[in-house]
Structures are given as structure tokens and as C-alpha cells.
Design goal:
8 helices, homodimer, 11% strand, 5-stranded parallel sheet, alpha/beta, 233 residues
């Protein structure tokens, strides 16, 4: 199965790329620059493509990002500290981001004769991001079947959609994913901040998986308190 | 119903913008530059926005268009002459174009608090473009419901999806659409060529609607033979 992986350079999608390279025919990585403040992650996607020996497209969606205003990931709103599952993380939602990235990836897959597009959406994202839920990915795949009918047959591969981030760490470790060469922090500083939602979630996932976290955090202990305080899901 | 219209500057979408301005609350036009050779159409979208007194966004999707290779609308492949419904028109398919443009428009609508996105897909496009068929638009609307769940409620307005281009001419005339200020030709020359699929379809639509066509064509009589020779649908 010739598969294109949507790879942000984060822990989840880099692990996914390694998993697809092991189990399927990885034919390329696609990344998106939508003006995110953590653009640094794109360097880690490029490193991943080099390591796995596949082409890498970084598609410039900044003109699109400019119309999707109101999100902390692209605007001047501060990225909040705390656990990812909290309601405060709603400011990090970029409306329709996954749907937009997926339709572009499906267009590229159709143009290049790929059989599948893989995305690392996972259960831990369900709380706040509707476009990471199984109901979305299933509806998306059904829509694409109609959109490309008669021209291409591209499936959507979402191996993590019913799993959590700790499962991804476990699976990533099995595929020898070099976790130190992945980027999660939404703040995009020199090191991972350790305080934003995605840093807390990352640190917690390694803890739950029982795998050593090689990440250098500016505030390495913040996650314990943030995790203790999170709202029940 | 606050509605954003996807407007290419063509006859269909300009008529739709006039219809929405009459019947609903038109809040803006969105156009896409995906590297189409008939970029001239965008000037007519801008004129339409001016005329109707609404904001106009032209979103630069050229970096996306660059990965969607193999279509006569963006590449160096020649645009074929003949009737739009013929199999030769398949080279004008840009894979997933409508799905991509619609997801971006839905993101913008969600960010801006609009209630609906309107698109002028119509029955005459069903032969060759799968992403203009009712099965696609219905699946797309269902996907968007999931993608924006809890954040926004944006519906998809497709008043022409079960109608043909002649019906659009009839409806456009009722809304006082200035047809001479719309652009259809895929070749993007000084005047409409009169020979490409979309010119033939345009000329035929005015004929079927019994409404005078104000368009200046380089080859005004080609459509008669092309229409006579077309394959049965």
C-alpha cells in the first residue's frame, strides 16, 4: 500500500511515519506551513524524511492560515499552560485545520497514484478537536470516496484514532523512532517549554508508557501538577 | 442566513452571488488562485464583490496547485476543444479541487461566524467532475458537521446541484446578473475562445434558456457543431 504520511514533525506523526515505513510502502511525507508559531516542528519532519529516504513536501498554507484567525496557534493570543484536555486549550483550535490538510493530501495522493493517506490523529485529541474524532475521520473517508470517484481510490489510514498518546509512544519505540528528533511544544522556543498543553501531554505519555523521555524541557516538573489538576474526561 | 459565496468569477458563481444577495445575507466572496491559466476570472469575482458591496478574499492556493499536477487547468497540457460533457474534458479535472476549496471556505466561515457556504456546482458538471455531484456535496456537508462539532454550525448551500447551466442563466437573469461581467473560458485569452468545453457549455446554456448571450467569442459558431457531436450523457 503506497502511503503518504501527513507529518508535522511531532511525536505522533514521526512515529506514524516510522510505523508505515516498517509495515507498508512509505512514498512520501507531506507537511503544512500554516503560519503556526511552532514552525520549528517542520525541521523535524524534514529530518524524518531524510532518515527514511522519502520525498518531503512542505506545502505553504500561510495564505489560508491568514483567514483562519482566532487561534492561539497562528495569532498573537498566548498559548495557555496546563493540561491538553482542559477547556482552556480550546483557544488552540484552528477551525477545520485537519479537514483542509487532509483534502490537500488526498489531492496530492490522487495526483501521484498513492493508495492511502495516513494521519496520526489519536484519542487524546478527541476532547477538544472535533476533527480528530472517529466520527470525523469516517465521514471524511466517505466524502473522499465520492470526491475522487472514477479518478482515484485513496483510503484514509488512522491507526491511532482509537488509541492514546501513550500507545503511540509504545508503538513508536517498537519502530525505533528517535523521539529526541520530534517536536511537540506549541510555543516553539529553543527547548520544549514543559508547560503548554502539548508538552504536558507529551511528558505524561512517556510516563504512562513507561518509556524514558529523552526530551529537554525548560520546566521539567510542571506536568505533574497539571496532570493532577486536569478535569476528568 | 449569513452566507459566504465561493466565487470564481464565472457565470455560475456570479449568478449565485447575486441570488444570495437577493434572498439571504451575503457576507463575502471567496475566490481561489490555484495557478489556473484562466486567472482572468478572478478579476470578474472582484468586480462582483465591488458591485454587491461585500468583502472579497482571494486565497492563494498556488503552492497547493503545484502538487496537484496533471490537469489542463494548471499545467502545460492543452485545453481541448469540444463539448464539456465529452470524455476528452477529463484532462481538465484538478483532483480534489472542490473539496479543498470547500474546506478552506468552511474554515473561513467558522472563523467569521457565517452560517453557510454557497457553491455553484450544478448538474452539467456531473459527467466529468465527481466533486460536483449531489453524492459528494451531501457527504461533504456530513463531514463538515463532524469537523466543526461544538465550534461552529456551517451549512452547505448548493441551490444548483440538481439543475443545469441553462437554469442558472434563467435564474441569473432574474437577479439582474450582468453576464458580460463574468468569465468562463478555460484558455484565458483576451475574449472567450468559443471552442473550449466551458465556452461551448456557456453558449449552449444561453441558447437553451432563450436568453441573449452578451459574450464576445473569437469563434462564435463552433458551439453548434460541438453540441451536435457530443456523446449522449
Amino acid at each position: 500500500m503506497k502511503t503518504i504520511v501527513i507529518c508535522s514533525g511531532g511525536l505522533d506523526s514521526v512515529s506514524l511515519a516510522h510505523m508505515v515505513a516498517r509495515d507498508h510502502q512509505l512514498t512520501g511525507l507531506i507537511s503544512f506551513d500554516y503560519g503556526q508559531r511552532h514552525r520549528k516542528e517542520l525541521d523535524y519532519a524534514a529530518l524524518c524524511a531524510q532518515r527514511l529516504g522519502v520525498p518531503h513536501d512542505i506545502i505553504d498554507l500561510r495564505p489560508v492560515g491568514a483567514v483562519l484567525t482566532g487561534s492561539a496557534l497562528t495569532d498573537d493570543v498566548n498559548v495557555p499552560d496546563g493540561h491538553y484536555a482542559e477547556d482552556s486549550m480550546r483557544v488552540t483550535v484552528v477551525p477545520n485545520r485537519n479537514a483542509i490538510m487532509l483534502t490537500v493530501a488526498f489531492g496530492a495522493a490522487a495526483a501521484r497514484g498513492a493508495d492511502a493517506v495516513a494521519t496520526a490523529v489519536h484519542g487524546g485529541d478527541h476532547f477538544i478537536y472535533p476533527d480528530c474524532r472517529p466520527a470525523f475521520t469516517e465521514a471524511f473517508a466517505a466524502m473522499q470516496k465520492q470526491a475522487l470517484d472514477g479518478y482515484a481510490d485513496v483510503s484514509l489510514f488512522t491507526p491511532f484514532v482509537h488509541r492514546n498518546k501513550a500507545d503511540i509512544v509504545t508503538e513508536g519505540a517498537r519502530c525505533d523512532t528517535p523521539f529526541a528528533q520530534t517536536w511537540s511544544c506549541y510555543k516553539g522556543g529553543a527547548d520544549h517549554c514543559g508547560r503548554c498543553g502539548t508538552c504536558v501531554e507529551r511528558r505524561e505519555a512517556f510516563h504512562l508508557a513507561g518509556i524514558k523521555d529523552p526530551t529537554c524541557y525548560e520546566d521539567p516538573d510542571f506536568w505533574v501538577a497539571a496532570t493532577a489538576q486536569k478535569e476528568p474526561a
